[in-house]
Amino acid sequence: MINVSLLLYWLLQMGVAFLSTITFAIIFHTPRKEWLCCGFTGAVGWLVYVVCVHFGLDVATASFFATLALAWFARVFAFWRKAPVTVFLITGIFPLVPGAGIYYTGYHLFMSDNSLALDKGLETIKIAVAIALGIGIVLSLPPFLFAPRKGGKEKRP
Questions:
Q1: CB within 8 A of 18, min separation 6: which ones?
Q2: Which residues contact 39 (CB under 8 A, 6 or more apart)?
Q3: What single DSSP character describes residue 152?
Q4: Which of 122, 72, 71, 82 has its CA nearest to residue 101?
Q5: Which long-range contacts (CB under 8 A, 24 or more apart) does 146-155 make?
Q6: Over the stretch 64-78, which tens digit does the pLDDT of each residue have?
Q7: pLDDT reading at 156 higher than 60
Q8: One-character DSSP codes across 41-77
Q9: Average pLDDT across the chain, whole number
Q10: Coil, strand, or helix at residue 83?
């Protein structure tokens, strides 16, 4: 069930992802005119992830669907803004990268808790593979799906 407090929570999550993605874009010297599109890409990806986890999907599957969504928007923005897709994709993927999973894998290895290290390591690998698959699927789609229509007709190669 979705109530107002849950929607506000998702909106807050989306806002924080938006700001963190823009911050990441600033750190990586993304052109200023692309910051809002980068932020929107990261926010949409994170929102899809949070909603998927809320409805019971595991983190790897949620990461896959979130990556599909943000890679789609990255391709659309790349065509609309006439910029490389990596500008939006690399910055937008930032909220989904399993940095905490990598940290906890190393932490549990250091603390000699091999079973927890293995669990976290496998989960992190699943998330990384899900992200790679999502990017690969969207980047393999034909470009005319993302180009804006001109005069009501699709431009095909």
A1: 39, 40, 42, 43
A2: 18, 19, 21, 22, 25
A3: T
A4: 122
A5: 146/72, 146/75, 146/76, 146/78, 146/79, 147/79, 148/79, 148/80
A6: 999 999 999 999 999
A7: no
A8: HHHHHHHHHHHHHHTT--HHHHHHHHHHHHHHHHHHH
A9: 92
A10: coil
